[in-house]
Amino acid sequence: MSTKPSILYLDDETNNLTAFAAAFRREFDITTTSSVDEAVEYLSRKKFAVILSDQKMPDISGVEFFESIRHDHPYSVRVLVTGYADMVSVIDAINKGHVYRYISKPWNIEELKLCINTCVEKHTREIELIEKSEALEKSNSELEKFVYSASHDLKAPIASILGLIKVVKLQNQDTEIDPIIQMIDTSAHKLNDFVTNIIHYYQNLKTDEIVKEIQFSDFLDQIIEKHQSTFNQKGIEFQKDFAQSSPFKTDAHRLSIALSHLIGNAIKFLDPEKDISKINISTVINREKLFFKLQDNGVGIAPEKLPHIFDMFNRNDPKNVGSGIGLYIAKESIERLQGKISVESTEGVGTTIILEVPNKG
Protein backbone atom coordinates (compact mmCIF):
# COMPACT_ATOMS: atom_id res chain seq x y z
CA MET A 1 0.00 0.00 0.00
CA SER A 2 1.11 3.55 -0.74
CA THR A 3 2.47 5.57 2.18
CA LYS A 4 1.70 8.80 0.35
CA PRO A 5 -1.32 10.82 1.51
CA SER A 6 -4.40 9.83 -0.53
CA ILE A 7 -6.08 12.59 -2.53
CA LEU A 8 -9.36 12.37 -4.44
CA TYR A 9 -10.21 14.99 -7.07
CA LEU A 10 -13.68 15.19 -8.69
CA ASP A 11 -14.04 17.43 -11.77
CA ASP A 12 -16.13 17.09 -14.93
CA GLU A 13 -13.30 18.60 -17.01
CA THR A 14 -10.87 15.80 -17.83
CA ASN A 15 -8.10 18.25 -18.75
CA ASN A 16 -8.09 19.52 -15.17
CA LEU A 17 -7.90 15.96 -13.85
CA THR A 18 -4.97 15.13 -16.13
CA ALA A 19 -3.10 18.28 -15.16
CA PHE A 20 -3.74 17.66 -11.47
CA ALA A 21 -2.48 14.07 -11.59
CA ALA A 22 0.62 15.10 -13.54
CA ALA A 23 1.45 17.88 -11.10
CA PHE A 24 1.02 15.95 -7.84
CA ARG A 25 1.43 12.19 -8.49
CA ARG A 26 5.02 12.16 -7.19
CA GLU A 27 4.07 13.47 -3.75
CA PHE A 28 0.56 12.15 -3.28
CA ASP A 29 -1.49 9.04 -3.98
CA ILE A 30 -3.82 10.61 -6.56
CA THR A 31 -7.27 9.37 -7.57
CA THR A 32 -9.23 11.38 -10.11
CA THR A 33 -12.71 11.02 -11.59
CA SER A 34 -15.27 12.99 -13.54
CA SER A 35 -18.19 10.92 -12.18
CA VAL A 36 -19.92 11.53 -8.87
CA ASP A 37 -21.02 7.89 -8.70
CA GLU A 38 -17.46 6.76 -9.30
CA ALA A 39 -16.20 9.15 -6.61
CA VAL A 40 -18.68 7.65 -4.12
CA GLU A 41 -17.50 4.18 -5.15
CA TYR A 42 -13.86 5.14 -4.52
CA LEU A 43 -14.81 6.54 -1.12
CA SER A 44 -16.52 3.26 -0.16
CA ARG A 45 -13.28 1.36 -0.78
CA LYS A 46 -10.60 3.75 0.41
CA LYS A 47 -9.95 6.48 2.97
CA PHE A 48 -8.79 9.81 1.58
CA ALA A 49 -6.96 12.47 3.55
CA VAL A 50 -8.14 15.24 1.20
CA ILE A 51 -11.08 15.45 -1.20
CA LEU A 52 -11.26 18.17 -3.83
CA SER A 53 -14.33 18.86 -5.93
CA ASP A 54 -15.18 21.30 -8.68
CA GLN A 55 -18.18 23.46 -7.77
CA LYS A 56 -19.82 23.72 -11.19
CA MET A 57 -20.69 20.26 -12.57
CA PRO A 58 -23.59 19.14 -14.80
CA ASP A 59 -25.66 17.06 -12.35
CA ILE A 60 -24.54 18.18 -8.92
CA SER A 61 -22.60 21.04 -7.39
CA GLY A 62 -19.45 20.58 -5.38
CA VAL A 63 -21.27 21.85 -2.28
CA GLU A 64 -24.03 19.27 -2.74
CA PHE A 65 -21.47 16.51 -3.24
CA PHE A 66 -19.61 17.44 -0.06
CA GLU A 67 -22.86 17.68 1.87
CA SER A 68 -23.81 14.16 0.73
CA ILE A 69 -20.56 12.56 1.90
CA ARG A 70 -19.56 14.51 5.00
CA HIS A 71 -21.39 12.26 7.51
CA ASP A 72 -19.84 9.06 6.15
CA HIS A 73 -16.38 10.62 5.71
CA PRO A 74 -16.11 13.21 8.48
CA TYR A 75 -12.32 13.19 8.76
CA SER A 76 -11.48 13.76 5.09
CA VAL A 77 -10.54 17.40 4.60
CA ARG A 78 -12.68 18.99 1.87
CA VAL A 79 -11.51 21.62 -0.66
CA LEU A 80 -13.86 23.34 -3.11
CA VAL A 81 -12.48 24.29 -6.52
CA THR A 82 -14.47 27.11 -8.10
CA GLY A 83 -13.95 28.77 -11.44
CA TYR A 84 -16.02 31.85 -10.85
CA ALA A 85 -16.36 34.45 -8.13
CA ASP A 86 -19.53 33.18 -6.45
CA MET A 87 -19.35 34.00 -2.72
CA VAL A 88 -22.80 32.48 -2.15
CA SER A 89 -21.39 29.12 -3.22
CA VAL A 90 -18.37 29.57 -1.02
CA ILE A 91 -20.55 30.40 2.01
CA ASP A 92 -22.77 27.39 1.23
CA ALA A 93 -19.66 25.24 1.00
CA ILE A 94 -18.53 26.30 4.45
CA ASN A 95 -21.98 25.97 6.06
CA LYS A 96 -23.39 22.88 4.34
CA GLY A 97 -20.40 20.91 3.15
CA HIS A 98 -18.06 21.78 5.99
CA VAL A 99 -15.42 22.76 3.44
CA TYR A 100 -12.04 23.65 4.91
CA ARG A 101 -10.66 25.69 1.99
CA TYR A 102 -11.57 26.83 -1.50
CA ILE A 103 -9.31 27.32 -4.50
CA SER A 104 -10.10 29.51 -7.50
CA LYS A 105 -9.72 28.34 -11.10
CA PRO A 106 -7.44 28.40 -12.91
CA TRP A 107 -5.43 27.16 -9.95
CA ASN A 108 -1.77 27.89 -9.39
CA ILE A 109 0.28 24.74 -8.81
CA GLU A 110 2.31 26.15 -5.91
CA GLU A 111 -0.76 27.63 -4.25
CA LEU A 112 -2.68 24.37 -4.65
CA LYS A 113 0.29 22.34 -3.38
CA LEU A 114 0.50 24.52 -0.28
CA CYS A 115 -3.24 24.11 0.25
CA ILE A 116 -3.10 20.31 -0.06
CA ASN A 117 -0.11 20.05 2.30
CA THR A 118 -1.97 22.16 4.88
CA CYS A 119 -5.02 19.91 4.53
CA VAL A 120 -2.91 16.76 4.88
CA GLU A 121 -1.35 18.10 8.07
CA LYS A 122 -4.81 18.93 9.43
CA HIS A 123 -6.04 15.43 8.60
CA THR A 124 -2.99 13.82 10.22
CA ARG A 125 -3.44 15.81 13.44
CA GLU A 126 -7.14 14.94 13.63
CA ILE A 127 -6.51 11.22 13.07
CA GLU A 128 -3.75 11.19 15.71
CA LEU A 129 -6.08 12.95 18.15
CA ILE A 130 -8.86 10.44 17.44
CA GLU A 131 -6.50 7.50 17.94
CA LYS A 132 -5.20 8.92 21.22
CA SER A 133 -8.76 9.62 22.38
CA GLU A 134 -9.84 6.07 21.54
CA ALA A 135 -6.79 4.62 23.30
CA LEU A 136 -7.50 6.75 26.37
CA GLU A 137 -11.16 5.74 26.35
CA LYS A 138 -10.17 2.08 26.13
CA SER A 139 -7.69 2.46 29.00
CA ASN A 140 -10.28 4.25 31.15
CA SER A 141 -12.87 1.57 30.40
CA GLU A 142 -10.44 -1.21 31.31
CA LEU A 143 -9.44 0.62 34.51
CA GLU A 144 -13.08 1.13 35.49
CA LYS A 145 -13.83 -2.56 34.94
CA PHE A 146 -10.81 -3.55 37.02
CA VAL A 147 -11.61 -1.20 39.91
CA TYR A 148 -15.28 -2.19 39.97
CA SER A 149 -14.46 -5.90 39.75
CA ALA A 150 -11.74 -5.65 42.40
CA SER A 151 -14.08 -3.75 44.72
CA HIS A 152 -16.71 -6.46 44.44
CA ASP A 153 -14.10 -9.16 45.00
CA LEU A 154 -12.91 -7.38 48.15
CA LYS A 155 -16.37 -7.24 49.72
CA ALA A 156 -16.51 -10.94 50.62
CA PRO A 157 -13.14 -11.18 52.46
CA ILE A 158 -13.81 -7.89 54.26
CA ALA A 159 -17.19 -9.21 55.42
CA SER A 160 -15.42 -12.37 56.65
CA ILE A 161 -12.87 -10.29 58.57
CA LEU A 162 -15.61 -8.23 60.22
CA GLY A 163 -17.47 -11.40 61.14
CA LEU A 164 -14.37 -12.97 62.66
CA ILE A 165 -13.69 -9.81 64.66
CA LYS A 166 -17.16 -10.10 66.20
CA VAL A 167 -16.45 -13.71 67.15
CA VAL A 168 -13.11 -12.72 68.71
CA LYS A 169 -14.77 -9.93 70.67
CA LEU A 170 -17.32 -12.36 72.10
CA GLN A 171 -14.76 -15.00 73.03
CA ASN A 172 -11.83 -12.83 74.06
CA GLN A 173 -11.09 -12.71 77.77
CA ASP A 174 -7.73 -10.93 77.51
CA THR A 175 -8.26 -7.24 78.18
CA GLU A 176 -4.74 -6.42 77.01
CA ILE A 177 -5.53 -7.23 73.39
CA ASP A 178 -8.93 -5.48 73.41
CA PRO A 179 -7.43 -2.22 72.02
CA ILE A 180 -5.71 -4.16 69.25
CA ILE A 181 -8.93 -5.91 68.28
CA GLN A 182 -10.72 -2.56 68.29
CA MET A 183 -8.07 -1.05 65.98
CA ILE A 184 -8.44 -3.99 63.59
CA ASP A 185 -12.22 -3.56 63.70
CA THR A 186 -11.99 0.18 62.97
CA SER A 187 -9.58 -0.34 60.08
CA ALA A 188 -11.70 -3.10 58.59
CA HIS A 189 -14.80 -0.91 58.76
CA LYS A 190 -12.93 1.95 57.06
CA LEU A 191 -11.82 -0.37 54.28
CA ASN A 192 -15.35 -1.73 53.93
CA ASP A 193 -16.74 1.81 53.70
CA PHE A 194 -14.19 2.77 51.06
CA VAL A 195 -14.88 -0.29 48.91
CA THR A 196 -18.63 0.32 49.25
CA ASN A 197 -18.12 3.92 48.16
CA ILE A 198 -16.24 2.81 45.05
CA ILE A 199 -19.05 0.43 44.14
CA HIS A 200 -21.62 3.16 44.71
CA TYR A 201 -19.62 5.54 42.53
CA TYR A 202 -19.56 3.16 39.57
CA GLN A 203 -23.18 2.15 40.04
CA ASN A 204 -24.19 5.81 39.92
CA LEU A 205 -21.98 6.37 36.89
CA LYS A 206 -22.95 3.37 34.80
CA THR A 207 -26.44 2.16 35.67
CA ASP A 208 -29.52 3.35 33.81
CA GLU A 209 -32.15 5.37 35.61
CA ILE A 210 -35.10 3.33 36.88
CA VAL A 211 -37.99 5.53 37.93
CA LYS A 212 -40.64 4.07 40.21
CA GLU A 213 -42.97 5.17 42.98
CA ILE A 214 -41.41 5.24 46.44
CA GLN A 215 -43.24 4.94 49.74
CA PHE A 216 -40.82 7.47 51.11
CA SER A 217 -41.48 7.06 54.85
CA ASP A 218 -40.75 3.33 54.68
CA PHE A 219 -37.91 3.98 52.24
CA LEU A 220 -36.23 6.40 54.67
CA ASP A 221 -36.77 4.03 57.62
CA GLN A 222 -34.87 1.31 55.75
CA ILE A 223 -31.93 3.65 55.22
CA ILE A 224 -31.95 4.77 58.84
CA GLU A 225 -32.13 1.15 60.01
CA LYS A 226 -28.66 0.56 58.51
CA HIS A 227 -27.31 3.20 60.92
CA GLN A 228 -29.51 2.31 63.91
CA SER A 229 -26.83 0.43 65.84
CA THR A 230 -24.56 3.49 65.59
CA PHE A 231 -27.40 5.76 66.77
CA ASN A 232 -27.88 3.52 69.80
CA GLN A 233 -24.18 3.10 70.50
CA LYS A 234 -23.45 6.82 70.41
CA GLY A 235 -26.66 7.90 72.09
CA ILE A 236 -27.76 10.10 69.21
CA GLU A 237 -31.09 11.87 69.55
CA PHE A 238 -32.84 11.36 66.24
CA GLN A 239 -35.96 13.16 65.05
CA LYS A 240 -37.88 12.70 61.79
CA ASP A 241 -40.63 14.95 60.42
CA PHE A 242 -42.52 13.95 57.29
CA ALA A 243 -45.25 15.51 55.15
CA GLN A 244 -46.43 14.18 51.79
CA SER A 245 -49.29 15.41 49.61
CA SER A 246 -48.57 13.50 46.37
CA PRO A 247 -47.08 10.18 45.23
CA PHE A 248 -43.34 10.41 44.71
CA LYS A 249 -41.40 8.82 41.84
CA THR A 250 -37.66 8.82 41.24
CA ASP A 251 -34.69 6.46 40.90
CA ALA A 252 -34.80 4.77 44.31
CA HIS A 253 -31.29 3.32 44.10
CA ARG A 254 -29.54 6.64 43.47
CA LEU A 255 -31.61 8.44 46.10
CA SER A 256 -30.83 5.69 48.62
CA ILE A 257 -27.10 6.03 47.94
CA ALA A 258 -27.24 9.80 48.44
CA LEU A 259 -29.29 9.74 51.66
CA SER A 260 -27.23 6.93 53.18
CA HIS A 261 -24.00 8.84 52.60
CA LEU A 262 -25.44 12.06 54.01
CA ILE A 263 -26.72 10.38 57.18
CA GLY A 264 -23.47 8.45 57.55
CA ASN A 265 -21.49 11.65 57.16
CA ALA A 266 -23.53 13.37 59.86
CA ILE A 267 -22.75 10.49 62.21
CA LYS A 268 -19.02 10.57 61.41
CA PHE A 269 -18.72 14.25 62.28
CA LEU A 270 -20.60 14.34 65.56
CA ASP A 271 -19.06 16.59 68.19
CA PRO A 272 -17.70 14.48 71.09
CA GLU A 273 -17.49 17.63 73.23
CA LYS A 274 -21.27 18.05 73.28
CA ASP A 275 -23.40 16.31 75.88
CA ILE A 276 -26.11 15.38 73.39
CA SER A 277 -25.66 14.65 69.69
CA LYS A 278 -28.67 15.39 67.51
CA ILE A 279 -29.67 14.57 63.95
CA ASN A 280 -32.97 15.94 62.62
CA ILE A 281 -34.51 15.06 59.27
CA SER A 282 -37.48 16.85 57.76
CA THR A 283 -39.10 15.90 54.48
CA VAL A 284 -41.80 17.55 52.39
CA ILE A 285 -43.11 15.92 49.19
CA ASN A 286 -45.50 17.58 46.76
CA ARG A 287 -46.33 17.17 43.07
CA GLU A 288 -43.20 19.03 41.97
CA LYS A 289 -40.42 17.76 44.19
CA LEU A 290 -38.97 16.21 47.32
CA PHE A 291 -37.57 18.72 49.80
CA PHE A 292 -35.22 16.99 52.25
CA LYS A 293 -33.35 18.72 55.08
CA LEU A 294 -30.81 17.06 57.38
CA GLN A 295 -29.55 19.00 60.40
CA ASP A 296 -26.93 17.99 62.94
CA ASN A 297 -25.16 19.65 65.86
CA GLY A 298 -21.78 18.16 64.96
CA VAL A 299 -18.38 19.75 64.60
CA GLY A 300 -19.46 21.85 61.62
CA ILE A 301 -17.30 22.98 58.71
CA ALA A 302 -14.77 25.80 58.60
CA PRO A 303 -15.73 28.59 56.12
CA GLU A 304 -12.64 28.05 53.96
CA LYS A 305 -13.44 24.33 53.61
CA LEU A 306 -17.15 24.73 52.89
CA PRO A 307 -16.81 25.32 49.09
CA HIS A 308 -14.82 22.07 48.72
CA ILE A 309 -16.84 19.56 50.73
CA PHE A 310 -18.31 17.93 47.59
CA ASP A 311 -14.90 17.54 45.92
CA MET A 312 -13.67 13.99 45.41
CA PHE A 313 -11.27 12.84 48.14
CA ASN A 314 -11.78 16.04 50.11
CA ARG A 315 -11.50 15.49 53.85
CA ASN A 316 -12.97 17.96 56.27
CA ASP A 317 -11.34 16.37 59.29
CA PRO A 318 -7.52 16.37 59.66
CA LYS A 319 -7.78 12.95 61.32
CA ASN A 320 -9.08 11.53 58.01
CA VAL A 321 -12.26 10.12 59.53
CA GLY A 322 -13.74 9.28 56.14
CA SER A 323 -12.54 8.30 52.68
CA GLY A 324 -13.31 11.73 51.23
CA ILE A 325 -15.62 10.35 48.56
CA GLY A 326 -19.00 9.99 50.32
CA LEU A 327 -20.28 13.54 49.84
CA TYR A 328 -18.98 13.55 46.27
CA ILE A 329 -21.03 10.43 45.52
CA ALA A 330 -24.09 11.94 47.22
CA LYS A 331 -23.84 15.08 45.10
CA GLU A 332 -23.29 13.13 41.89
CA SER A 333 -26.29 10.91 42.66
CA ILE A 334 -28.57 13.87 43.30
CA GLU A 335 -27.41 15.62 40.12
CA ARG A 336 -28.13 12.43 38.17
CA LEU A 337 -31.69 12.79 39.44
CA GLN A 338 -31.72 16.38 38.09
CA GLY A 339 -31.81 17.57 41.69
CA LYS A 340 -29.90 20.12 43.74
CA ILE A 341 -27.89 19.84 46.95
CA SER A 342 -26.74 22.70 49.17
CA VAL A 343 -25.05 23.01 52.54
CA GLU A 344 -24.92 25.52 55.36
CA SER A 345 -22.57 25.08 58.27
CA THR A 346 -21.08 26.88 61.25
CA GLU A 347 -17.92 25.50 62.75
CA GLY A 348 -18.57 24.20 66.26
CA VAL A 349 -22.36 24.53 65.87
CA GLY A 350 -23.47 22.09 63.20
CA THR A 351 -24.39 21.52 59.57
CA THR A 352 -27.56 21.63 57.49
CA ILE A 353 -27.79 19.87 54.12
CA ILE A 354 -30.77 20.49 51.83
CA LEU A 355 -31.83 18.36 48.88
CA GLU A 356 -34.38 19.18 46.21
CA VAL A 357 -35.25 16.24 43.95
CA PRO A 358 -37.82 16.48 41.12
CA ASN A 359 -40.93 14.35 41.44
CA LYS A 360 -41.07 12.33 38.21
CA GLY A 361 -44.55 11.04 38.92
Describe this structure in words.
The chain has about 350 residues and is of the alpha/beta class. Among the domains are: about 5-105, Rossmann fold, CATH 3.40.50; about 210-360, Heat Shock Protein 90. The chain contains ten helices and twelve strands. It has helices at about 15-25, 35-45, 60-70, 85-95, 110-170, 180-205, 215-225, 230-235, 250-270, 325-335, and strands at about 5-10, 30-35, 50-55, 75-80, 100-105, 210-215, 235-245, 250, 280-285, 290-295, 340-345, 350-360. Helix 5 (about 110-170) runs antiparallel to helix 6, helix 6 (about 180-205) runs parallel beside helix 10 and helix 9 runs antiparallel to helix 10. The protein is elongated. It starts with 5 loop residues before the first strand and ends with a strand.
Keywords:
alpha/beta, 12 strands, about 350 residues, Heat Shock Protein 90, Rossmann fold, 5-stranded parallel β-sheet
The CATH architecture of the domain at 209-358: 2-Layer Sandwich
Q: Let me know the number of strands.
A: 12
* Count of individual helical segments: 10
> CATH superfamily name of the domain at 209-358?
Histidine kinase-like ATPase, C-terminal domain
CATH class of the domain at 209-358, named Alpha Beta
Q: What is the mean pLDDT?
A: 86
The separation of the N and C termini measures 60 Å
What topology, given as strand order, has the largest sheet?
2-1-3-4-5
Helix/strand structural class: alpha/beta
Strand proportion, as a percent range, falls in 15-25%
Helical content class: 40-55%
Taking all Cα atoms into account, the compactness measure Rg is 33 Å
What general form does the structure show? elongated
